[in-house]
Design goal:
single chain; 350 residues; alpha/beta; Rossmann fold; 12-stranded mixed beta sheet; 5-stranded parallel beta sheet; 10 helices; 30% helix; binds threonylcarbamoyladenylate; binds magnesium ion
Length: 350
């Protein structure tokens, strides 16, 4: 398949391109597109045959449901069978934006989209290209992250091209994703509501609307038999580059010492080491490929660069990646959730 690749200026969106890509969705094709979280791979959510192609292109497990993207509030009632009060309040406060709400679905949404569940995740993105594309398609767009299943999600067009060129009809490029981590997923079918995947809409923000809200305990922990995440996608090995990742956690100074000590040992074994550091620490390491995620003063900069940094270590063919850790509060909960999963919960406490 020949993939049409087009870059769009998000401040001056070329309408002809959006109309063409919208038509591809409407007629059963696949389009990768930017959102404020990560890039998505979209198909018509109402068309099971179209959605099957997403699973094939990504190599995605069949039991992992997709998020349905809409561009206006009226569309909620087209896809949701019932809208709980909690969902209504959250949507009003945080949409459009990086938040997905789980509700009972209407039959019009394909069972392939929901992976056979009676519920669906709905999201109204804020990215202008995404919104225009949904409008042009005239149908809700089912879209997972636009990566090969298991790899870190793409936050720019180049990574979409790496993963999907030749496998999808269209790739639209916009800016680098604003948040860099996927949306917060909230199950609104239960009372109290439960956060199934942490994201840029944080627990504190959600509690300002629904004070009993809590995070599914299984998402911050290593998968165990008695502790299974409620979002099917959270049980899989995920966000993992090819090189194994180890997280060093604890006191700032001890972390630096431990990482330098580990580097020496790996070098002795003939290994090339990558270090995920921060602006504050990057000059404290030697004999390794050091990349800074951003400043510790702004956890949003860390989240924005996390996936791209993980992927760029693979381009540099390092054998092992050692990462610093971050405080699990605010957006840091989402950062550590993705980092822990990328490391398969290989955490060394110092
Ligand atoms: O930010 C995002 O949400 C991005 C952009 C493209 O919008 N999309 C995204 O989709 O991250 P995906 O498919 O990579 O992740 C969707 C997550 C999975 O963990 C999935 O299991 C969960 O949401 N999910 C979707 N529908 C669900 C449902 N009905 N019940 C429970 N979990 C659900
Ligand atoms: Mg994904």
């Amino acid at each position: 398949m020949i993939t049409k690749i087009v870059r769009v200026d998000s401040k001056n969106i070329d309408n002809d391109i959006i109309l063409e890509a919208g038509k591809v969705i409407k007629t059963g094709g696949l389009v990768a597109f930017p959102t404020e979280t990560v890039y998505g791979l979209g198909a018509n959510a109402l068309d099971g045959e179209a959605v099957k192609k997403i699973f094939a292109a990504k190599g995605r497990p069949q039991d992992n449901p997709l998020i349905v993207h809409i561009s206006d509030f009226e569309s909620i009632d087209k896809v949701a069978a019932c809208v709980p009060k909690s969902a209504e309040k959250l949507a009003e406060k945080f949409w459009p934006g990086p938040m997905t709400l789980i509700m009972e679905k209407k039959a019009i949404v394909s069972d392939i989209t929901s992976a056979g569940l009676s519920t669906i995740g709905i999201r109204m993105p804020s990215d202008e290209i995404a919104r225009e594309l949904i409008k042009a398609a005239g149908v809700p767009i089912a879209a997972p992250s636009a990566n090969i299943s298991g790899l870190p999600s793409p936050t720019d067009i180049e990574r979409c091209i790496d993963d999907l060129n030749g496998k999808v009809d269209y790739i639209i490029g916009g800016e680098k994703s604003e948040f860099g981590l996927e949306s917060t997923v909230i199950d609104c079918t239960t009372n109290p509501i439960c956060i199934l995947r942490p994201g840029a809409i944080t627990l504190e923000m959600i509690k300002s609307v629904e004070k009993e809200a809590y995070i599914d305990p299984a998402v911050m922990d290593k998968p165990k038999d008695n502790l299974k995440p409620k979002a099917p996608g959270m049980k899989y090995k995920h966000y993992a580059p090819k090189a194994p990742v180890k997280i060093i956690e604890g006191d700032f100074q001890k972390t630096i010492e431990k990482i330098n000590e580990m580097v020496q040992n790996y070098i002795g074994e003939g290994k090339k080491v990558g270090i995920m550091a921060t602006d504050e620490t990057k000059d404290s390491y030697k004999n390794a490929l050091v990349m800074s995620l951003g400043t510790r003063k702004d956890i949003y900069s860390i989240g924005k660069n996390l996936f791209e940094t993980l992927r760029s270590f693979d381009d540099k063919s390092v054998d092992i990646i050692l990462s610093e850790s971050f405080e699990e509060s605010g957006f840091g909960v989402a950062v550590m959730n993705r980092l822990n999963k990328s490391a398969g919960f290989d955490i060394i406490k110092v």
